[in-house]
């Protein structure tokens, strides 16, 4: 099977290892890194690479860059979306609420590989071919280096997005109450070093109903993960409170759990060790990438060619060949 994987060339998170694993587990897979402008105008690029000769075309981009390209997307047989932000489809405060499911519903033969188990189930109820494939971490880049953990409590990441308003408020309040470090680092070596200096990593994925990539990265680097409970998602992904993770459901509970962990170093070490083993065994890119490759190549719904008008429109505008 011949696979085309279109990815973002400007991503902050380094996913090269994930793409490498997907390539390794496909018969033939070519990765193209697209600029923002290319993602917003897929027609010319697809025409230039003879997309119709591929059995699967996998797109990993921002949904806002795709919604206005419906005619082009309808012309792609074997269309697969790789999506790490589809949780926003069901967030009441998100400007992308229902945007994902509207797009996928208008492309009934497409497949959406989403990173939340509950999100996948919700989309399946809307008759979307949605499949859960978790986020993970780069096991070649991130690991427990064994250095001294001189940062008692920390959070690394952005607080700018409007979707993160609750996260920002909680983390700032916790920082005042506990002295927690809240900062950002560069990807790569600086991020690895800082994670390894943190004893308790605080995750605050409030209202998202899924776990962001930092949870897996912090666990893999040997931090005790103090995470906002995602309800049913916790168990579906294998997280266990006070075994491989420490869950909280409110600010006061987070403060209580922090005090407990700091008063019982052996308990904290045991949870950190279990969490590291858990992340390594289930959520490395080596494992996640293999699952992605399998789901990309699995048989899909029968493709319905676009209307004659759509085929003519894309042919005249982009010189795209479209199968009838």
Structure description:
The chain has 324 residues and is of the alpha/beta class. It folds into two domains: 2-136 and 286-318, Rossmann fold, CATH 3.40.50; 151-283, Glycogen Phosphorylase B (Rossmann fold, 3-Layer(aba) Sandwich), CATH 3.40.50. It has 14 helices and eleven strands. It has helices at residues 16-24, 36-40, 42-48, 70-74, 99-105, 117-124, 165-178, 189-197, 213-220, 232-237, 251-263, 265-282, 285-297, 308-318, and strands spanning 2-8, 28-34, 56-59, 79-83, 111-114, 129-132, 151-156, 181-183, 198-203, 224-228, 246-248. The strands form two sheets. Strands 2-1-3-4-5-6 form a six-stranded parallel β-sheet. Strands 8-7-9-10-11 form a five-stranded parallel β-sheet, with helices on both faces. The protein is elongated, with a radius of gyration of 21 Å.
CATH fold naming of the largest domain: Rossmann fold
Main beta sheet, described? Answer: 6 strands, parallel
Helix content: 40-55%
The low-confidence parts are none
Secondary structure class reads: alpha/beta
**Domains, number:** 2
The coarse overall form would be: elongated
CATH C-level class of the largest domain is Alpha Beta
- The fraction of residues in strands falls at 15-25%
Average pLDDT, to the nearest integer? Answer: 95
What is the strand tally? 11
The order of strands across the largest sheet is 2-1-3-4-5-6
Gap between N and C termini: 21 Å
Secondary-structure element series = EHEHHEHEHEHEEHEHEHEHEHHHH
Number of helices: 14
CATH architecture of the largest domain: 3-Layer(aba) Sandwich
Radius of gyration: 21 Å
